[in-house]
């Protein structure tokens, strides 16, 4: 089965081509169909901002490493006992690349994000088909296209970020980083009560995209004094909620200063393994009583992510589409940063749902 | 000082004119200006859905009962110590008709809605001027007109209702009752993460207004089967959040049926003193684990109400305006139900803020 | 396999012996051991306050209805794939009689209490053995005896009740009903921050038991004026948390009066199918802003129930023990009300854990 | 009026006596009694762990700096309008050294800890009398002695720490630092649902005191491997709640490692102005999803602190008592660390309440 994979470990941005990480299309064995499993013919599979981290060996270095966990498709086959959520062959679906075992202590305590068997069904989905446990598969609403539907998973991340903000309607919100998670978080926070909604992002195209999708203000942290701007926007109060979606050590340093007293700051990205942010306990936890937290993975958020998909404007996040065999070019485009999101068309499937 | 007041106790809807409650304009003595007080020349003062309840004697029967607690205006005078929130003569303001003492046990426990001295500064604001403690007064943002600003108080109620829903983004929401609180709650829930947002309301004009302001669906509980409709809209799940803004004993009976398992149901209106809703504990609290709660008054919600005012569309809620001396006609118009909100112009003040 | 069962539908309290419900010991077929299942040789299985409701046909009327869902025992056999929580043959265990499917919408939304397949593994545990899915089985700590361990499930109910109270340390707490859930809730709330902890219970022995286990005060609702007593105990403030563990229509009527403004009232028992409690919306949801909610089943609470078992004093709740073949007498004793809890010894197993 | 004060800025621990901070008793003018004020004849005033920070100039360097904010006493005089909480001359009281204005934005948003006028009534209470606004004064329960009552304020800090933990009953809890706040937090968390309650503290006497007051385990971070011990105590899960009450840069570094996945870590002390804790975002906020927060001051916690005072064992925290004129010796004793708490007897008042 044709599958997009990391074929050499290394930074995809390495200027030295001999050391650079490589992406290719390789043949993987078919994934077995267990009695409670669902085989999905993949329509679209999007490149995630974490995929380059996998190329760098964040989660392991044995190549080839199959990629792809943001996908949509059509049910092709069902295991004999895969009947608990009423799926039928032909259903348009998307899903969660993680299966939660239900048996380990975190699963039983309601914290599936820490499931001890979380990787058991994590199979590469940038492929012709993917086979998941039925608990991972969600039927798409009729008014969501397969192309938009492949963003269910990153939308679930934005929903979980929103959940952890504990926002109250009217709170002032700033988001740092205008990549796909930042743009989705922006739309989700726009519909979840944010005021003075501000994106901090150095790339002009991404700031403009944010303004088209509900940002009240944007800040260029390179050319502008973000502290002064934050002060103006919030009339000296600071932001009640600050979300980092940049993953950038340089960018995160200033976020505690623009947070309001009592604010919540969410670290919603991946950070370099060895990066330690200096945290002044007296200024930020004692005097300002900030709350800092983060997001790893997003169980429990999928049903609501599915519910809000029709309310989001996903056209600009799905405008750059490549065929499976052109995956190398797709990743080059992703690295170029021209589009916040690049999508792989894994099969050419006629979509009975809303066209995008 | 000219003040709108209940001049005879009785239902404003009583067909018997001799028993009907009466509204008039009477002369009240000037309210004293204490050292921490602020005198406001009132621009607009809106009729509240609870005003007819006052006419019926809900909170007392000694006439005249001065009315008006949804107001905006301009600071006319400041007590010598009224300096804690930087107010200046000439500032455009709105506010909270209740002052919280800060000293009683509820105030010190963070539950000012139960303040034991809550009535100390509740002065009629449908008048030429009103004098409040500085803690009750909020400066309006430049982009909010005095006409829209008089809706700060009912907006704070809608914000507090939203707070008590504990909504998570994507939750399905139904609102029963399309009067002013229902319409404001609809707009607030629209911007606070609601999906499948549905208004249940028998008056066609109010349903149409809701559709113009963000409702996904409307239900006419008279001509439609609301249970079947709710089932269709939520694909059999029920609504995660149900808000009653009707205050109607007949309307509230069916709301528990359309609530999803685990849903929150907010009783956000005033109800007849002696009305007892039959509550099946087995069906609704045991098997469905619903949470039922209500809203009395709304401390803590004003700063965020002020923050969201510019995001609301308040034109239709402020289109029916009467002069102070025409208060009787204004109340007749209110009772007619033609407009969800009727506003009294207490003084003719040139508004330096955003025009509406 | 010998199993305690309802053999005739009817009230166990019916004075007419010919109409009275009957409990007997019958032979049931062995439960199959699936690949992820665990067979437990049952040591102790306690009678639950809901068992008489089952005898009355609350959940169905086809006899025999096998009973027993509060149990402890020793692992006798493991399915070939039952390895996710490290269980071994011989382990001392207790568990949850419900299996949550992990696949339906409620399971995936984090509300397993509403799992659509909740009954799939609900098998009678007042039997020689019970076979459960591994996700239902918890290893007992070394310092908890098998006799005490059979109370894991009702303890999980008390934990979930505690969770839903949202208690803050120092809150005043009243519990209505001194049966096993009431007594366990009392101990759990004692260790969870309650002050002025009060049990309302007409049976003197149960009030005395509560005083031995941490109640500050007890009220006999028959001979005392519970409103006056509540007022004295709380210095006129009312209770911040009120828990009903009585299930009694007569008892629940007065609980809203003794609740403080802003209090949470938990309905933590089963109620007659057709009982409708009259709820004055104006007094209790509008003016007092009470929050009413309930508890059906208790997923997510088991890990913490296991953690607190060693901190509870369970001797008095496990002092009345009958052999399996004497189940009829055991239920007679349960109905007599002499002991708040009656336990069936299903097998005579030497306990390597802490003796009780 | 005789008042204990910092008379020279400097570290009280400075080995160089000429540079060392100094504490003395000086004459301060009487504090004016405003119309809503209450004059209290002080019985006891305890030395706070933050007092040496004041000697070092944390909040200012103009000497003399009057000290004392943990106090109890008897009402001596009432302003003419100080009637809102029913105080009478002769009442036994304690209180909050901070007055919240009720008018600034934080006060009106329900975050009085950030009140912009918080210092207006912060008057030295290690003195013959102190005069506070009535909103700062709480009547002591009859069963709390004046000696114990002077710990109301630090108890409120422990209560607020407990509030911010969001503990669920059964959570595993570790506390770092066995000074007065650590010891009070230990007792409060003991009564608020903690299991595996562990104190980390290098001083043996403080560990032993903790074991006498409800700690399940203690760890000496100097002689023991705290990571291995934490692992044993929590069976590899880590602590669900970690509280720092040490304020020590060295001690706080290891706390994130012993926290469970998803845990809450509270920084509940003061930290050096310039201390920056290195925070690995990937390990602790991304992979472990920890929540970090802190506590500045504790509005809203006083009513519940008052409620739990009778449930705490305060004898060991009030065993070292000095007369006002011996304040220098009292501070020497405080610095010696022999007792976790040292108390100044400001007046010799016969206590009508429970003797200690």
Name some characteristics of this structure.
six-stranded parallel β-sheet; Quinone Oxidoreductase, Chain A, domain 1; Rossmann fold; homotetramer; 2 domains; 356 residues; seven-stranded mixed β-sheet; alpha/beta; 12 helices; globular
Largest binding interface between chains: A-D, 38 and 38 residues
The tally of structural domains of chain A comes to 2
Q: Spell the H/E element sequence of chain A.
A: EEEHEEEHEEHHEHEHEHEHHEEHEHEHE
Mean pLDDT of chain A: 95
What's the arrangement of secondary structure elements?
The structure is a homotetramer of 356-residue chains.
Chain A: E1 2-8, E2 22-27, E3 37-46, H1 51-55, E4 65-66, E5 71-78, E6 92-95, H2 105-108, E7 129-133, E8 137-139, H3 146-149, H4 152-165, E9 172-176, H5 180-190, E10 195-200, H6 204-212, E11 217-219, H7 226-233, E12 239-244, H8 249-252, H9 255-258, E13 259-267, E14 276-280, H10 281-287, E15 291-294, H11 302-308, E16 321-323, H12 327-336, E17 343-345
Parallel strand pairs in A: 9-10, 9-12, 10-11, 12-13, 13-15, 16-17
Antiparallel strand pairs in A: 1-2, 1-4, 3-5, 3-7, 3-17, 5-6, 6-8
Helix pairs in contact in A: 4-5, 4-11
């Amino acid at each position: 089965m044709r599958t997009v994979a990391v074929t050499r470990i290394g930074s995809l941005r390495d200027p030295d081509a001999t050391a650079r990480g490589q992406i290719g299309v390789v043949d993987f064995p078919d994934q077995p169909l267990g009695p409670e499993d669902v085989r999905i013919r993949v329509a679209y599979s999007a490149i995630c901002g974490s995929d380059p981290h996998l190329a760098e060996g964040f989660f392991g270095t044995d190549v080839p490493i199959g990629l792809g966990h943001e996908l949509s498709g059509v049910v092709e086959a069902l295991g004999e006992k895969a009947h608990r959520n009423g799926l039928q062959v032909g259903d348009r679906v998307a899903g969660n690349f993680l299966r939660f075992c239900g048996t380990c202590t975190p699963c039983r305590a309601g914290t599936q994000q820490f499931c001890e068997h979380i990787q058991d069904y994590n199979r590469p989905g940038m492929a012709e088909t993917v086979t998941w446990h039925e608990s991972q598969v969600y039927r798409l609403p009729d008014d969501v296209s397969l192309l938009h539907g492949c963003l269910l998973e990153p939308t679930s991340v934005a929903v979980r970020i929103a959940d952890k903000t504990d926002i109250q309607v009217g709170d002032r919100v700033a988001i740092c980083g205008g990549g796909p998670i930042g743009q989705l978080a922006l739309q989700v926070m726009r519909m979840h009560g944010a005021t003075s909604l501000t994106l901090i992002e150095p790339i002009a195209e991404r700031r403009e995209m944010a303004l088209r999708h509900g940002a009240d203000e944007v800040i260029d942290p390179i050319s502008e004094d973000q502290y002064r701007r934050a002060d103006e926007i919030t009339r000296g109060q600071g932001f009640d909620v600050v979300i980092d979606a940049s993953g950038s050590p340089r960018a995160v340093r200033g976020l505690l200063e623009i947070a309001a007293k009592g604010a919540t700051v969410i670290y919603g990205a991946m950070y370099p393994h060895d990066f330690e942010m200096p945290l002044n306990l007296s200024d930020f936890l004692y005097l300002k009583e900030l709350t800092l937290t983060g997001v790893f993975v997003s169980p429990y958020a999928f049903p609501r992510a599915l519910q809000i998909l029709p309310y989001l404007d996903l056209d600009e996040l799905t405008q750059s589409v490549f065929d499976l065999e052109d995956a190398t070019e797709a990743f080059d485009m992703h690295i170029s940063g021209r589009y916040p999101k690049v999508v792989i068309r894994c099969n050419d499937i006629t979509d009975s749902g809303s066209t995008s």
